[in-house]
Amino acid sequence: MGRMPDITTEQGVYVNPAGEFTRDQRYIASRITRDGRDGYPVEAGRYRLVVSRACPWASRAVIVRRLLGLEDAISMAIAGPTHDKRSWTFDLAPGGIDPVLGYERLQQAFFKRFPDYERGITVPAIVDVTTGEVVTNDYPQITIDMSLEWRDHQRPGAPELYPEALRPEIDEVNEVVFKDVNNGVYRAGFAGSQEAYEKAYTRLFDRLDWLSDRLADRRYLVGDTITEADVRLFTTLVRFDAVYHGHFKCNRQKLTEMPVLWAYARDLFATPGFGDTVDFDHIKRHYYEVHRDINPTGIVPAGPDLSGWLTPHGREALGGRPFGDGTPPGPVRADEVVPREHTAEG
């Protein structure tokens, strides 16, 4: 009988055997700005946003782009839900080649600009179509710049996701949510020791309890409209029961067992720009197929039941105006619609 192949040599290793998982926060810091001070001026049609619907960090950019109506200004390439340790691939595109960039792998755009690039090939990433080179993969800055630097290309009625008066509070909330929730689920899932896991687990659920208290009598995290803070929390919450509860052992409770956060998440899910960008099939396939050091069989769970996402949430009673003085985005572009069988309606 032949030796079984070591899948981790192809998929990569995620668990830190020394204990606590630490995320590499070194990203390409170039920015696309109105004044083009980094050499990348705002210019409609020049840049391509590369995402995977599986990735929570990329999903932030997908949501913000849609809420602000930047589809015509910034094109989008959707990578497949799985990748190997080298790179995300464009296996969803005809022939496995992105039709705009002409690339099979996102890695090619990184190497085009940085031939010796040694860090992770991550999404979201923005590529300069004119050169084929990556511009940035600094995901927190990407969405902020969509709100501020791309204002001239936003749709009429685009919401203020990062209003000046609320920025200090948004930044404060985002910082603790990132540390304890967005990255907290990974700190639990990729922990290599019982001690590191339990520390991350405790921090995660303490923060979720704090968020439940905060949202008990207010519809949104900061102010009375949707902001960048809600986008960042939503992309973790929408993945919680599907992957984090079981795969990452974040199992004190399911999201469906935390009444305030469950209602809050359903409220956002029902808001145009949020739930209509979520691909549950891609989410599950990514985590369970790629993280083979956690899930060696690669078996993707059949559940959970997603129908609850479509049930009434009752959060309208708290007031608030989702888009403030703006309006909801229109229908999803035909070439960006999530397949029905991958949604809560499937």
TrEMBL record:
Key words, A-Z: Transferase
Listed CDD domains: GST_C_Omega_like
Site features described as Lowers pKa of active site Cys, chain residue numbers: 244, 287
Active site: 55 (nucleophile), 186 (proton donor/acceptor)
Domain of life: Bacteria
Span of domain GST C-terminal: 137-290
Any Gene Ontology CC annotation: cytoplasm
Gene3D superfamilies: 1.20.1050.10, Glutaredoxin
GO MF annotation: an example: glutathione transferase activity
Biased composition (Basic and acidic residues): 333-346
Region annotation Disordered: where it falls in the sequence: 317-346
Positions annotated to bind glutathione: 88
Name of the featured protein: Putative glutathione S-transferase
Species per Swiss-Prot/TrEMBL record: Asanoa hainanensis
Lineage: Bacteria, Bacillati, Actinomycetota, Actinomycetes, Micromonosporales
